[in-house]
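[Meeting: bench + compute handoff]

Bench side (C.D.) handed over the final construct sequence. Compute side (W.E.) agreed to return the predicted structure before the next meeting so the bench team could plan truncations. Sequence as handed over:
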Amino acid sequence: MKIRGAVLELSGAEAPFARSRPLVVSELELAAPGPGELLVRIEAAGVCHSDLSVVDGNRVRPTPMLLGHEAAGIVEQTGAGVDDLAVGDRVVMTFLPRCGDCAGCATGGILPCERGTAANNAGTLLGGGSRLERDGQLVHHHLGVSAFADHAVVSRTSVVRVDPDVPADVAALLGCAVLTGGGAVINAARPAEGDTVMVVGLGGVGLAAVLVARALGHEVIGVDTVRSKLDAALELGATEVLTPDEVASSGRRAEIVIEAAGNARAFETAFAATAPGGRTVTVGLPNPAARASISPLMLTAEARTVVGSYLGSAVAERDIPYFAGLWRAGRLPVEKLISARIRLDEINSAMDDLAEGRALRQLIVFNQEEA
């Protein structure tokens, strides 16, 4: 079938992207779903730093590539062997498919799936190969999803069904921002009653961590260099906000510190601000060449723990329904993370807004396409 999507032609384009236009909205050919796969009509897709990191070259992926990985949509067709989902179901996309058989899948979310990771790195689906072409040329998938398009073919293990009362804009954010930031809280940080949670880096993932920590009843300190993001954290329930310099000068510390910025300085800030006996959880994805400096003595003398958390150490089938339940109960106002609703044609400008810290979560809403 013919679809319309945003294809990254080449990584590492110069900013501003609205001028260099590395993403081209094109017509593509999408093959039918194979065994264990689904055809999904995309309703909403979030613009995330994991997309930006491919555009700016910090994350190396094969091109051309149809970007987008945080999304929700409606099942329109099921491939052979998919008997637990039906046409018309709303599903949340997740960017790490799981084979269910490898050593990573046996860790309950702590380690990523080995086969899923290999497929993501190669720009293929879990079942192998691409379902996308443009003018006879293969186009790679992004993280098994490629959601910056009106339709996608994905592995069954790349989606989680949600009840129809969960709207598409909320459902989309559950699959990446909330699963990563909130998952880091419940799966990796596991704060005890009375623990204070500090979040360093207040983008979509960091603010999702703020929301979930507050939903669980913890005091939350938000840390960022951008004033508007500090203000956003206060609006979402943070009990205190500080810049990194203010954290350093005040000596402020917390039992749980989550780093969600994806750079070395943020990790160093988070580590230094972790209280004795506390836990530093890092979820950001820095440039592979980035290096941080910390004191090994502090780990020993203060009995501290540093934990890496990829995709919130989450099992999507387990955790997305949990977060949907918090939303349904009025305890997780995910909608407040959305800073703008945009059209697909605005994708290059959206990348600029994200890179410059002017946006939290921009959401491509596909029923706006003809507006």
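W.E. noted at the follow-up: Residues 193 and 217 are 8 Å apart (CA to CA). C.D. will use this when planning the next construct.
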